[in-house]
C-alpha cells in the first residue's frame, strides 16, 4: 500500500511541474484523420485582441506511420486579410536513431514546437493564422497528395511571464 501512495505522489508531482508556470491564453487543435492534404492549410481564427507580448507554439501529433524525421511548415499571420508575417519552419520530429521526439506514452507523440517568442502584434484583431505543410521527398518532382502520420496540428498562444 505504501508503494501505491509513493507512486500516486510522484505522478501528482510530475503533473504539477509539467504545467510549468505557463499561462495558455489560446489553444485549438485540428484533426487530420486521413493525412494532412498538401493543398489544405489549416486555418486558426483568433478574435481576441492581444495587448501584450505572447509566445506562439505549434503542436504536432504524429504516429508511427509518419515517414520523415523532421517536418517543414509554412506559418503565416494575417490581420484583416493583410499578410503580416510568413515563416518557413523546420522542426526535428525524431532522434538520429529513429526514436520519436515529443511527449506521450503510446505510439502517438505530441511535439510542442516553438514558433515565435515575445511576439507583439502591430495590428488589431482579428488574426488569422495559417499553417501549411511543405514536406517533399528528395528526387520527386511533385509532393505526395497528403502527409501520412500527422494526426492533428494545433496552435497555442501563451502569455509572457
Explain what you see.
By secondary structure, this protein is mainly beta. It has one domain (22-159): Jelly Rolls, CATH 2.60.120. It has one helix and ten strands; from the N terminus they run H-E-E-E-E-E-E-E-E-E-E. The strands form three sheets. Strands 1-10-4-7 form a four-stranded antiparallel sheet, with no helix packed on it. Strands 3-8-5-6 form a four-stranded antiparallel sheet, with no helix packed on it. Residues 5-20 have low confidence and may be disordered.
Q: Work out the strand percent.
A: over 45%
State the domain count.
Answer: 1
Helix/strand/pairing class, anyone? mainly beta
* Number of E-type strands: 10
Q: Mean pLDDT, as a whole number?
A: 86
First-last Cα distance? 40 Å
Extract low-pLDDT stretches: 5-20
* Percent helix: 10-25%
CATH architectural designation: Sandwich
- Helices and strands, in order, run as HEEEEEEEEEE
Record the strand order, biggest sheet.
Answer: 1-10-4-7
Q: Please compute the radius of gyration using only Cα atoms.
A: 18 Å
Count every helix, treating DSSP H or I runs of 4 or more residues as helices: 1
Looking at the structure, the CATH topology is Jelly Rolls
List the helices and strands and how they pair.
Layout: H1 2-18, E1 23-31, E2 36-37, E3 42-46, E4 54-62, E5 70-79, E6 82-92, E7 109-119, E8 127-133, E9 146-147, E10 150-159
Antiparallel strand pairs: 1-10, 2-9, 3-8, 4-7, 4-10, 5-6, 5-8
List keywords for this structure.
161 residues, mainly beta, Jelly Rolls, four-stranded antiparallel β-sheet, 1 helix, 47% strand, globular
Amino acid at each position: 500500500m505504501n508503494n501505491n501512495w509513493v507512486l500516486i505522489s510522484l505522478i501528482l508531482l510530475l503533473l504539477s511541474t509539467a504545467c510549468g508556470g505557463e499561462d495558455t491564453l489560446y489553444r485549438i487543435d485540428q484533426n487530420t484523420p486521413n493525412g494532412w492534404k498538401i493543398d489544405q492549410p489549416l486555418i486558426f481564427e483568433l478574435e481576441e485582441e492581444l495587448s501584450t507580448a505572447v509566445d506562439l507554439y505549434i503542436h504536432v501529433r504524429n504516429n508511427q506511420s509518419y515517414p520523415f524525421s523532421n517536418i517543414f511548415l509554412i506559418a503565416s499571420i494575417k490581420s484583416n486579410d493583410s499578410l503580416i508575417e510568413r515563416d518557413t519552419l523546420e522542426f526535428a520530429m525524431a532522434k538520429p536513431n529513429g526514436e520519436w521526439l515529443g511527449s506521450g506514452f503510446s505510439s502517438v507523440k505530441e511535439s510542442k514546437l516553438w514558433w515565435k517568442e515575445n511576439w507583439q502584434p502591430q495590428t488589431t484583431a482579428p488574426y488569422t493564422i495559417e499553417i501549411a505543410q511543405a514536406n517533399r521527398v528528395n528526387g520527386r518532382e511533385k509532393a505526395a497528395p497528403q502527409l501520412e502520420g500527422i494526426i492533428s496540428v494545433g496552435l497555442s498562444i501563451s502569455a509572457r511571464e
